[in-house]
Amino acid sequence: MALRPLTARPPLVLLREAKPLRALFGEAQRLDRLQQIVESQLQPAARPHCRVASWREGCLLLIITDGHWATRLRYQQRRLQRQLETHEAFAGLQRILFRVQPPQPTRPAPRQPTQISQASAEHIKASAEGIDDPRLRAALERLAAHGLPRD
Q1: How far apart are CA 54 and CA 35, in angstroms?
Q2: Beta strand residue intervals within the chain, DSSP E
Q3: Rounded distance between C-alpha atoms, residue 39 and residue 32, angstroms
Q4: How far apart are CA 41 and CA 57, in angstroms?
Q5: In what ranges is there compositional bias, type Basic and acidic residues (predicted)?
């Protein structure tokens, strides 16, 4: 029995039909609206360092990129809470929690293998033949192998 692949459906159809996906998308939109409100109350310099993580049962959790900004925002916590309480989306706000979570470091791009010309490889191999130290000789031979044609 051969299985037929499912036909691709447009994203809007998936969002309307798949309940878990629809719920996830709705939560993402809600957090985005809350993020915009929080950013409107923050100093411009603090905005890139602060993200809304959750808003449940009167508790707003903010993720801060480093301890310096967390300390600055903790000093402004009461003012920020009073300002956010005026917005309908934050009705019932009782406390604000700050958690420090540094951004994930970007991984460096994988290194490309070293390419050397065949002539250079032959010169390195010839130099290796005159070396008495076995470790240095082996290292030079490995280096020369990068440019020699494979047998």
Answers
A1: 10
A2: 50-56, 59-64, 95-100
A3: 10
A4: 21
A5: 122-133
Other Cβ atoms within 10 Å of 135 Cβ, number: 8
For the chain, the helix, strand and coil percentages under 3-state DSSP, each to the nearest 5:
50, 15, 35
How far apart CA 49 and CA 86 sit, in angstroms, is: 23
Band (pLDDT 50/70/90 cuts) for residue 37 is very high
Helix 67-75 with 77-85: angle, nearest 10 deg: 70
The residues with which 98 forms a beta bridge, in sequence order, are: 62
| Residue written as token pair 């009073």 | 82
For the stretch 93-144, pLDDT in tens is 999 999 999 888 888 878 776 678 888 888 888 888 888 999 999 999 888 8
